[in-house]
Amino acid sequence: MARGNWNDNGTILKNTITNGAQGVGFQIYNGTAATPLKRGDALMSRLTKMATINDQYTFPITARYVRITGEALQPGEVQSKVIFAVSYD
Length: 89
Known about the structure:
The protein is built from no helices and three strands. It is mainly β. The mean pLDDT is about 85. This is P pilus assembly protein, pilin FimA. InterPro entries: Adhesion_dom_fimbrial, Adhesion_dom_fimbrial_sf, Adhesion_dom_sf, Bact_Fimbrial_Adh_Pro.
């Protein structure tokens, strides 16, 4: 995982809406893992080769809405973005 509006330790995606909610964000998980992914982590190292170009793959990603410790809570809308870089050969 790469770019996004991360907190200082890179574990929570912060709200990107101006004048939106404060003190909350999102954590990204690899499937049902108990530990969230951090900025710079690889979701997975390698996929098994797909049989044909028409095959589809669903990435096992989940997100959780979380409180950001040390920030005051403010109600409002929440939105965030993260970029997953996929390379293949």
